[in-house]
Write a structure and sequence with these properties.
By secondary structure, this protein is α+β, with helices and mostly antiparallel strands. The protein contains eight helices and 15 strands. The protein has two domains: 147 residues, Gcn5-related N-acetyltransferase (GNAT) (Aminopeptidase, 3-Layer(aba) Sandwich), CATH 3.40.630.30; 140 residues, Aminopeptidase, CATH 3.40.630.30. Helices cover 33% and strands 28% of the residues.
Length: 302
């Protein structure tokens, strides 16, 4: 997810900035930029803010800076001002770009390109690199395409509380370490790669939910109430429906996630259950990509 504005995608005259590793001392400045950049972008296109406050944006940025498996960079002006930032998550085989944001006062000066080039250099040799961007942000879409990213999938962020309860014969509960093997096998079956380390962190926070039938994991999601972190997989669409119904019984609040728009039957089912479409997102990738085999949704990373 990014809030960047780079209108020239040929030879960009880079603004004179220093691209350096992010430190915890940068968290407050980056949090402010994160909030303002995404607020400006979303207001321009008539969408709700991605972050409700500077404090929430700062907390998320600080978590990325502090994470041992996240590579972060900032763009620093000659006078020491932070102008923007970008992150690369390296927990699992697929690398994930973002969040990335540029101070609205200095957008359009090539800073976003420099920050992207820095994280792509870090990602060299990875199995694949992915990101999700707001589909209405033509500037970031064009920037990423110019850097080699291909458009892979279109998503609609949905949020709501299902109107019906789950069917019988299923078990729904918070995921535990004992579920990791089954979840890992299911994720690899759907996507062709594992995402075990990120799921392990979701389990540790108590957020992940599994749906089991006959003692076997048929579906799971990582963070039912937080769409930016909520990735999930299921054997089939019917299992994903059941997972959504069961998760709502556990978390007792709206479920939010990114629905692949081309999964039309499941999309329509979600609408009949009371889910509301919030914003469109686009998945882009560099490197290895396999079409998913099964039902799934990504987090805002991939």
């Amino acid at each position: 997810m990014s809030a960047v504005d780079v209108p020239n995608f040929g030879k960009v005259a880079h603004m004179d900035v220093n691209i350096r590793p992010a430190t915890e001392n940068d968290a407050n400045a980056c949090g402010r930029i994160c909030y303002e950049a995404f607020r400006t972008l979303n207001e321009r296109h008539g969408f709700s803010p991605a972050f409700p406050s500077v404090e929430v944006a700062t907390r998320r940025v600080r978590n990325f800076i502090q994470h041992p498996s996240v590579f972060g960079v900032v763009a620093e002006a000659g006078d020491g001002r932070i102008l923007g930032f970008n992150f690369l998550t390296e927990r699992d085989p697929i690398r994930a770009v973002g969040p990335a944001a540029i101070d609205p006062m200095v957008q359009g000066k090539g800073i976003g390109r420099q920050l992207m080039e820095a994280v792509l250099k870090q990602a060299r040799g990875a199995q694949g690199v992915r990101l999700l961007q707001a589909s209405y942000n033509m500037q970031s879409l064009s920037l990423y395409a110019s850097l080699g990213f291909d458009v892979r999938e279109f998503f609609i962020m949905l949020s709501g509380v299902p109107q019906t309860g789950p069917p019988g014969g299923w078990e729904f509960r918070s995921a535990t370490e004992a579920d990791l093997k089954g979840c890992e096998a299911l994720h690899k079956r759907v996507h062709g790669y594992t995402r075990t380390n990120e799921l392990r962190e979701a389990i540790a926070t108590g957020n992940a939910v599994v749906a089991l039938r006959g003692g076997r994991v048929r579906a799971y999601m990582a963070a039912p109430g937080v769409w930016v972190d909520n990735f999930g997989v299921a054997v089939a669409e019917e299992d994903m429906q059941t997972l959504l119904l069961g998760a709502a019984q556990i978390v007792k609040k709206p479920i939010s996630f990114l629905m692949p728009a081309r999964h039309t039957a499941l999309f329509r089912w979600c609408l009949t259950q009371g889910f509301r479409a919030i914003r469109p997102m686009t998945l882009m990738s560099i490197g290895e990509y396999r079409e998913p085999h099964g039902s799934y949704f990504p987090s805002v990373l991939y």
